[in-house]
Amino acid sequence: MALLFKDPNKISAYRDRRFPGTQEEYENALQTTTTVYIGNMSFYTTEEQLYELFSRAGEIKKIVMGLDKNTKTPCGYGKLVQKELEEQRQVVDYGVGSLGSFQPSHMSHNYGTGRHGGGGGGHGYGGSHRHGRGDYHRKRYREDDRRGPDISNRNSENEPRRNSDHDSRQEKNPRFREHGDSDDEEDDRKRQK
Amino acid sequence: MSSWRSLILRIGEKSSEYGGVIDFKDHIDACFGAVRRELDHSEDEILTFLLQCSEQLPHKIPLYGTLIGLLNLENEDFVKKIVESTQKSLQDALDSGDCNKVRVSMRFLTVLMCSKVIQPSSLVVIFETLLSSAATIVDDEKGNTSWQARADFFITCILSCLPWGGSELVEQIPEEIERVMVGIEAYLSIRRHVSDVGLSVFEDINKINKLHVEQDFVEDLWSRIQDLSKNSWKLESVPRPHLLYEAQLVAGKSHDFGPIICQEQPDTPVELSRLNFGSQKYEAELKYPQRIRRLNIFSASKTEDLQPIDRFVVEEYLLDVLFYLNGCRKECAACMVGLPVPFRYEYLMAETIFSQLLLLPQPPFKPIYYTLVIIDLCKSLPGAFPAVVAGAVRALFDRISELDMECRTRLILWFSHHLSNFQFIWPWEEWAYVLELPKWAPQRVFVQEVLDREVRLSYWDKVKQSIESTPALEELLPPKGGPDFRYSSDDGDKTEYTLSRELNSMVKGRKTARDVIIWLEESVTPINGLDVSLRVVVQTLLDIGSKSFTHLITVLERYGQVIAKICPNEETQIMLISEVSSFWKNSAQSTAITIDRMMGYRLISNLAIVKWVFSPSNIDLFHTTDRLWEILINALNKTYNRISDLRKEISHLKKSVVKAEQIAATAKAELDNAEKKLMLVDGEPVVGENPARMKRLKSNAEKTKENEVSTRESLESKEALFARALEENEALFLSLYKNFFAVLMERLHETFGEKTLDHVGGDSEAMAVDEEDTSAMDTDKENGNSKSNVGYTIGEKEQWCLSTLGYVKAFSRQYASEIWPHMVKLEEEVVTESVHPLFRKAVYSGLRLHGDQ
Fold first, then answer.
1. ipTM for the whole complex
2. Does the distance separating the beta carbons of A57 and B366 come in below 8 Å?
3. Where on the tree of life does the source sit, at the highest rank (chain A) (predicted)?
């Protein structure tokens, strides 16, 4: 690891104000988390695409897609939990390149009203990529279609590394539709931690 | 960053610190000026930083060396400290076997010698120490020849210094350096030629005895150094800034360099059996891996016209940048394109990166790292690099049928990822001819797998659109459809359909797994049989979980117990896998993910996966698709991860036990001490003096003891788990090899006859064309429209054998460390004397075990 150009112990200045603990706990959580935040995604990015790309960097335990509060459709960010701390670091350090294209899905909801205000999204994204800690200071346009996922570990969730593959925690899943096929029946609030 | 820091860091670069101009003299003057001013205030920081830079930016060592030479004229003490720390870090690196550090430290010392900071004879002393250690290792009587990898590494280190200081050494101490060279020559005559068939990217299928002619890495470097010496030690790739300051530097005081010691090599095992030797050799090669295996994929007309030694030096630069700047994408790309050489090297750079991406048994970093480097370089050099990369792809594609299976998989993953970053643009029409090849032709399978991966990274229509120029290639796209749910309509079996609806509403109604199990046991299985239960449950749950990865995980977490209940043994688990595979027949990715997750939740054992992969209907697909191999690879990988996790935990717990013991002992000692004191005071134990303290000590001693015991207990339980995992591993590999053996045996004999190892020259004969099978294909080939269309003349059976053997080799190689401990059993039970020589060859070459040793 190149120590000349960066300090592996330095963490992002971003502070999640809803984090319940002290600053120290927050920093510790950031240092040990195996969760990676992925931003700048298309609304059409699927979990399977993320899986394909990120599994090349390390085993993925879980993917959480950020959903728009009202439409319950993906709104351009997500997180994934990896098995190993080292793998998480690598994803943050290397990035993984970008996902090329995203298929406009069949969803008829007004996806344009998400907080990213994507104006209907778009597809045929080009191949730019961004680095988690801003090594690539590219000029970024709000409506720039040519941007890839923004990856960082600025997420405050501290996912303890689990030792066994088997994890039987029963957890409320946001995208799991028990009540029927309509997106509207999902309760997004339960997803919020 | 204060300015001396950035000046040191950016020296030799076209950076703002130096006004955007590269002039070594200006750079050194400016940097020297700044450092000299600060030396009194921040000596320690400068020392640390200079050493750090010269280690991590080794392509700038000549500049740092000259800078230090100049500082030596001002402040001898400072430079003395530099020499001392370098001595210490070289010794540490030798002790810990840190190859990169040893090599870079020696280069640094060579350059310090050029700047008169150390005596040439001190450097020769280091060379001789390494040389004598190397000579001992390969000595049949005194040494342990299985550790030749270390000896070779030492020799490589010595030779690698010469481009940086050969000319100075020869000028100043010609006899001594000549002695070293003679010593190396003697070493070369004793050592064994290294022929790692198992690690070559291309399988030599048509060239008899080629390997015996080809030089190995050390021989190759030696001949490059010979050339350099014939050319009076002149080369272009190493800057020699010290010459600019020769007049000043001469006045510098040379510092002593303390002696270094090479570790003894491990003793030869008492019983030098073939396997003992092989496993030691394997271990040594893991510790001292060869850094690069040149690919030579570009034709000589394309590559830069370089002196052999310049090529070596540039490779060293590139490999060092890749190693030390891993994780800093911007800096890494900038250094790669800005090496201090006066010639172009795009082809060499591409070849070097590809050689790393395809390095066997594994590259120093994950393949995805090299993918990103290539992407970054394409963006840094948009005019030059993309075309070179495309050239490399074509060259590799032309030889795809010789490409090692593991390398082929890496190439597919890389290429699809790369294209996904560049709008999926590729001149597919060049490869349209693969459609005329039989469906097992490696070229055709390659295109098909790349397209499949592209679809996974984006979506079907997008990839379809990207092959617009060659619409016929659509034939190779994966099916477009989604899941194939058996009960999507009631056309089929009405009973099963109804049961499925019922289960579906139970799940929607949030019934527990327990409820579902009761329902199955009471009202489904007894009436319809286990088969129907299994099919309905698996199909229905998969359907509910089919929307996304998260849906799948949720349904498995919630109803995994139901599946576990109806699939308790290998036989039913195989049925489960078949059901998954039929449900997801349109999506290789979903099949693989689902099976992988099910194994993760321990619903499926790795043995069941192996058995399923080798089931009769699957065997026939071995040579036409990667689907099954992906599933098998995942299963092996997961098993391997489990065992490495356990190893890590155990080593961590062992440390904790030691720590807990110490703490407990300290607490006990404190308590004893306190008790003793009390006893001495009154002759009998009186707790009156400080009862609170006594109580605290006592409880502390108890608590720490308890902690020690519980840590030890958890260590013991982990060790028990580990022992079980090892057994399971043995069972897994035995089963894997038995299955390979079973499917290969008959086919190998049918296809290749009783070819024995008499034909040592390789498998040329075995791979020779089967006239009957290929005559039809020859005509096909004529229609191929690619200029580089290599005739594909291999029949289906041969290709099946070649592909399968390729995976035998790839698996053996990748999991060699796990397989070695079970080697005796494996040879007893599977790889016996009577197996087909090609099968044995695949296993042995993967394990790097040579028949002749």
1. 0.87
2. yes
3. Eukaryota
